[in-house]
Amino acid sequence: MISWVEKLGVPEIPLAKSAFSQLKGYWVEHKDLNLEQLKEDLWSWVDSNDGYNISVPEVAKMRIILCLAYEDNRELEDVGYFEGLLVNLGISHEDAYKRT
């Protein structure tokens, strides 16, 4: 998920940049992070920015970043939620569902 965000680009939204940086530190460097508070902040942004309209690139990218805030985010991949966001952002179905 982290590599996809890096490929797609972090939205030019302060919360997105901050959240992604913190989440990358959490997952890669095992830094402490209050995931619950971060999820709350990200959901608040999504809910107040047409969060169901995932055809808007910033919304889809914020939802991908939000996936990273969940400890059990592999479950989101297993049900295709994460890949569906990638497809909405123009990634081919084949590439989105490819397991590396």
Overview of the structural elements:
There is one protein chain. With 100 residues, this protein is mainly alpha-helical. It has one domain (2-96). Helix content is 66%, strand content 0%. The protein is built from 7 helices and no strands. The chain has helices spanning 2-8, 14-29, 35-47, 57-68, 73-78, 81-88, 93-96. Helix 4 (57-68) runs antiparallel to helix 6 (81-88). It starts with a helix and ends with a helix. The model has no long low-confidence stretch (mean pLDDT 89).
Task: List the keywords.
100 residues; mainly alpha; 7 helices; 0% strand
What is the gist of this entry?
With 100 residues, the chain is mostly helical. 66% of the residues lie in helices and 0% in strands. The protein is built from 7 helices and no strands.
What is the terminal separation in angstroms? 11 Å
Structural class: mainly alpha
Largest sheet: none
Please tell me the overall pLDDT: 89
Number of domains: 1
Extended strand count: 0
Series of secondary-structure elements, N-terminal to C-terminal: HHHHHHH
Runs in which pLDDT lies below 50 for 5 or more consecutive residues are none
Q: Please report which band the strand proportion falls in: under 5%, 5-15%, 15-25%, 25-35%, 35-45% or over 45%.
A: under 5%
Total of DSSP H or I helical runs spanning 4+ residues:
7
